[in-house]
Amino acid sequence: MLKLAHYSIGVGDRFGHQARAQIRAVQALKNQGVTVVPVWNKSFREHSLIGTHPADTRRAADAAVAEEKWTSGYFLDADHISLKNVESFLPTSDFFTLDVADFIGKPVETADSEAFADRHAGLTGRLSVPGIAQPLEIDRATLIKVASRYLAAIRAAGNLYRHIAAAKKTAPFVTEVSMDETAAPQTPVELLIILAGLAEENIPLQTLAPKFTGEFHKGIDYIGDPAAFAREFDEDIGVIRYAVGRFNLPGNLKLSVHSGSDKFSLYPHIAASLRRHGAGVHLKTAGTTWLEEVIGLAAADGEGLALAKRIYRLAQPQFDALCVPYATVISINRANLPSADTVDAWSSGQFVGALEHNPACPAFNSDFRQFIHISFRLAAELGAVYTDALKAHAAIIGEHVTGNLLERHLKPLFLDR
Ligand SMILES: [Zn+2]
Question: What is the pLDDT at residue 182?
Fold first, then answer.
C-alpha cells in the first residue's frame, strides 16, 4: 500500500500553471518544521468543463516537483470518481476518491441489513470510545437503520475499489471514500457503522470524507455553528481511531475535509483537535487557486485587470448555467453581484478588494467571489488568451497562490504557535 502522510493538502490547479507556486507554499512550511504533502486533485467535472485530461495534471505536477526539487512526496487524486468516469484517470492517478454519495439511501434487501446487524452485534450497547466523553449508544434497530441507508454505498465503494485495483495491477495507490456531496451529515455513530462496512469490503481506506454538520460552500467561510462542527470533528477522530483497531483498517486512516478552502472559522478547531489526538488530516482545496489567478491578474493592472473584467462580463449572462454543476455547494445572492459596467470602472485595488477573501475588508463581496469561483469555464473558453496571460503575469499570480495557501490555510491549520 502506498502510504499517505500524516498531513496532506489537496490542491487544485485547473489550468495547470500553479503547481510550482503551490509547492513553494508547502516548502515554506516544511522549512518551518511541518511537512504537508500536496495532492493535486481534479474531478471529472472540472476536466470536462475545462477540456483537460488527467495526464495534463500529472505532467504539470511532475514538472513542478522536479523544478522546485520537492522531495517529500506528492499524489495525483482522481477526485470524486465513479465507475462511470474512472477510466481516464487510471493510468496517471495514484490517489482515488471513490464518490459513493449517490448510493446513499439506495434500497437493499431487508435480509442484508439484518445480516449486517448480526455480524456487528458486538457494537450494540454502550460503547466506550477513547477520546469521546459520552459512550456511544447503539442498538440493533440503529444498526439495521444505518445499514439499510448505507449498505448500497458501501458496496459501491467496494466494487469501484476492486475495479481500480484490478486495472492498476501492482501499481500502488491511495484510497479515499467520499460521502460529502449529500444532504444529511453523518453522525459519529453512523461513521463507525459505515467504517465497519468498508472494512468488510477489504478497502485499504486511508481517508474518509464524511458530510460534516453545516455548509461547506466553495470559496467562502463555513456556514453553521463552528462549535457544533468542532464537537463532531473531534468525535469523528475518536471513532476513526477506534475503528482502525476494531476493524483492522489502515493505521493512518484519517478524515478528509472537502471544500476545505477558506473555512477560516473552523481551522482553529481542526488544529486543536489534531493536536489533542495527535491525528492527521487531509484538507481538500481546489478552486481557490483559480481565484488567486484572477486576483493576480487584477493586481497586475493594465491588460491583466482588463482580462479579469472581461471574464466577469462574459460570465454574467451565463449565471444560471454556471451555477448548475455546483448548485449544492454555492449560495450566491445575485442581487449582490455588481453589473459588468460597474466592475469595468473598478481600479485594480477595488477588484482585488472585492475578490480576495479578507472578511475584514469593507470591499470584500462574497457573492462576487463565489460567482467568479464557478466561472472558470469562461477563462477556459478564452484558450491561449487566458493561459498566455497566466504566463505573462506568472510572478504576481504565483505570489498570490503561494501566499493564500501558506498564510491563510497551511499556517493556521498545521503550524503550532
Ligand atoms: Zn467533495
Answer: 85
